[in-house]
TrEMBL record:
PANTHER family: ABC TRANSPORTER PERMEASE PROTEIN, OLIGOPEPTIDE TRANSPORT SYSTEM PERMEASE PROTEIN APPC. The chain crosses the membrane at residues 32-54, 107-130, 226-247, 282-303. Keywords: Cell membrane, Membrane, Transmembrane, Transmembrane helix, Transport. It is found in: Cell membrane. Coiled coil: none annotated. One of its GO terms (cellular component) is plasma membrane. This is ABC transporter permease protein. Its main location: membrane.
Amino acid sequence: MALTTASPERTPNWFARAWDSDIGHSFRTSPVTMLAAFVVLVIALAALFAPWIAPTDPFDPASLNLMDGKTPPLTPSAFTGNEFLLGTDDQGRDVFSAILYGARMSLLVGLASVAVSIGLGVGLGLLAGYRGGWLDSLIMRVADIQLTFPDILVAMLIFGVARGAVPVTAQESIAIPVLILSIGVSKWPQYARTVRGLTLVERGKDYVAAARVVGLPQATIMRRHILPNVIGPVLVIATLGLSLAIITEATLSFLGVGAPPTQPSLGTLIRIGQEYIASGEWWILFFPAVTLLAIALSVNLLGDWLRDALNPRLRG
């Protein structure tokens, strides 16, 4: 009689564990959150693969035909007979292709500026909360002063000063890094204040005292022990901050002090489109504006869901 041995159960991978967790259950039972995640994923992938998805390179002068200018969506051009999914602008640029490239720039600036805000805010918040004393007072007073001004004004000030410090010939080439830096620096106080408050709570716990007793350096204690316990709220702020960063970038570009014309974002496209809305070419403004609205609204919905999912009082 043959003996059969039960095969060992496979350990579920990280995706299966995440899907079956409380947060995974909260996600898959919220249709609005799943729809928002789908919209963000589709737009992000389309922007990432814009060079392969876009029918034309809208910013290559050799591919433009002025005879196709101001062609309505899904309508043959009166001169060339070419059709464009979302129409063209005054220069004959395909609006669909321009949106893909513009969303790419908007997402890049938004993500990079949030990374700058997190790095600066979390680092200063940890330092202020753990060290305390005059250093804590100095960092928090600077944060309080900056919070008295609107983020957009702080970003415009930093952007203007940084661009004014370099030669005119180099201003366009550094416009995007300066834009990222200005938005990132304008939004660090929210992260610093949150992390400082959580660090004040964590530094008095037994595990931090034990780390001090064994002689671990302060930087190691903050990085390895305190930071993992305060990162949850930071992720929520970062998710909500991403939509604000994208809107701030669009506002700066709309005002003409953001992305340069050679590297346009959705804000740049909206600024161009508003010049033609009164003459009847509504699609030049409408489709970039709807794309920006979809990104900001979807990311905000994801941030609201993440905030509730990470709050134990709101589970179940």
